[in-house]
Design goal:
This protein has one domain: Alpha-Beta Plaits. The chain is built from three helices and four strands; from the N terminus they run E-H-E-E-H-E-H. Strands 2-3-1-4 form a four-stranded antiparallel β-sheet. Helix 1 runs antiparallel to helix 2.
């Protein structure tokens, strides 16, 4: 079984006529529908899962933005991959989670 990694993706659409945020929403919709764990932040969306699957989802997200009418896109990736071990978002962020009573 393929190890889980974290992949951060930022898609910056360029369009002379369309709103950039609405174009980014198309990419996030693809990620939401994919079924992988993800977190949307103000600068990027971070996904967790097998690298091959995440790269496939990232390509689909890029295509969705272009199909929605972007003239072009800039795509930035950040990945954390471990040798023979999974990477999880939980291990990096759980100590910052707040619990409300």
């Amino acid at each position: 079984m393929e190890q889980h990694i974290n992949l951060g993706i930022q898609i910056v659409p360029k369009s002379k006529t369309l709103d950039a945020y609405s174009l980014v929403d198309r990419a996030i919709e693809v990620i939401q529908k994919s079924g992988v764990s993800y977190v949307v932040t103000p600068f990027e969306t971070v996904m967790e899962g097998p690298q091959s699957l995440l790269m496939e989802i990232a390509k689909q997200a890029q295509d969705a933005v272009l199909e929605a009418g972007a003239d072009e896109i800039l795509v930035y990736y950040r990945m954390q991959v471990r040798n023979k071990a999974d990477v999880t978002m939980e291990e990096k962020t759980s100590k910052y989670s707040t619990k409300q009573s």
